[in-house]
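Dear support,

I submitted the protein below through the web form. The confirmation email said the job was done, but the results page showed an empty box. After a refresh the structure appeared. I'm attaching both so you can tell me whether what I see now is the final result or a partial one.
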Amino acid sequence: MASVREVMNPSTACVRTDSTAADVARRMSELGVGALPISGPDNTIKGVITDRDVVVKVVGAGRDAGTFPAGDLNQQEAATVGADDSTEDALETMKRLQVRRLPVVDRGALVGMLSLGDLARQLPNSPVGDLVDVLSEDRAEPAAS
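What the results page shows now:
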């Protein structure tokens, strides 16, 4: 099986925790992407911010995107994958965490992004289909009767 490095997007575009949600949206628009890794002052990856995060947690919640700190949108713990990890391991990580994108690191430095699309273009349909099934599961709590 291929390594993550062989299928990842080598972009190292990133936003900082002290950026605003509006800064993040502009950067995504400039790059034509729907997600960006976020890094802290120490240059460590803190997580990934998606266009959905900006829309739902900022705009949809009535917050001011021009002042809302992007750092408030990152996860508690950053999920990453190693550049030399196998695509099979990356796929399992995505399934376990139910995420569609992972920042790729090499010796602690961001070297790219791995997306479900990257894997779909490179891997047989079966493992990718399994991942899509897991990601598409309804995680909402059932309504009380």
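Response: this is the final, complete result; the empty box was a page-load delay. Residues 125-136 form the longest helix (12 residues).
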